Amino acid sequence: MFPRYRQKTIQARTGVAVLTAVAVLVAILSLFLSNERNEAKEIVDTFYRYEQAGDFGSSWELFHPLMKKKFPKDVYIQRRAHVFMQDFGVKTFDYRIDEVEQLSSWSMEDGNKPLHDVYRVRVIQTFNSAFGVFEIHQDVFVATEKGEKRILFPYRP
Q1: Helix intervals (H) in 53-129
Q2: In the chain, where are the structural domains located?
Q3: CATH annotation of 13-152
Q4: Given the DSSP bridges, would you call strands 132-145 and 115-129 parallel, antiparallel or unpaired?
Q5: Are the C-beta atoms of residues 150 and 141 closer than 8 Å to each other?
Q6: 3-class DSSP state of 31
Q7: Please, is 80 exposed, middle or buried when counting C-beta atoms within 10 Å of its C-beta (0-12, 13-18, 19+)?
Q8: Which burial class, exposed, middle or buried, applies to 60 when counting CB atoms under 10 A from its CB (0-12, 13-18, 19+)?
Q9: Where are the alpha helices (DSSP H) in the chain?
Q10: Opening angle at CA 8, ends 5 and 10, nearest 5
Q11: Which of the two residues, 15 and 65, has the higher pLDDT score?
Q12: What confidence tens digit (pLDDT) does each residue in 96-136 have?
């Protein structure tokens, strides 16, 4: 057998190696989650830049299939343009992205199968309208579909 001091040295080295491996795994996981969070924030930012420019067709393309099923492209474009430009009397709006939170599961509306690893992104839009200045606070959700981040709106209380 090994002398006692050699056993303690081996145990100490093993402990250091295990702690180092755990630290590396935590760092990799942290980078992965941070990257996922940033991707969710970026897709929401892209969506609202399109909306801000009145390019509702391009913003619709970023929808998750569940949203595309709920709103055919032509219907979405017509309704968004009508609400923002005609009803509100605005040409554009400002927005800011507030909180980003990861959820283990979420469903768009009752009866839908839950989606996993979804991000909730709080968006605040500011409108200078014919009715004065007002804000809309909306939670937008981001899920991965076929390797791509996609936008969903909530339809349940």
Answers
A1: 56-61, 65-70, 73-81
A2: 13-152
A3: 3.10.450.100
A4: antiparallel
A5: no
A6: helix
A7: middle
A8: buried
A9: 4-52, 56-61, 65-70, 73-81
A10: 110
A11: 65
A12: 999 999 999 999 998 889 999 999 999 999 999 888 999 99
Q: What is the pLDDT of residues 61-87, one digit of tens each?
A: 999 999 999 999 999 999 998 887 888
Give the chain's radius of gyration (CA, Å): 23
Closest CA to 108 of 72, 75, 70, 152: 152
Contact by Cβ (8 Å): 153, 67: yes
Polymer length in residues for the chain:
157
Which 8-state DSSP code applies to residue 63?
A: B
Residue that is written with structure tokens 């992965």 in the block:
32
The tokens for 56 are 């509702």
Hey, is 83 helix, strand or coil?
Answer: helix
One-letter amino acid identity for 64? Answer: H
Contact 149, 134 (CB under 8 A): no
Both tokens of 49, joined, read 């830049």
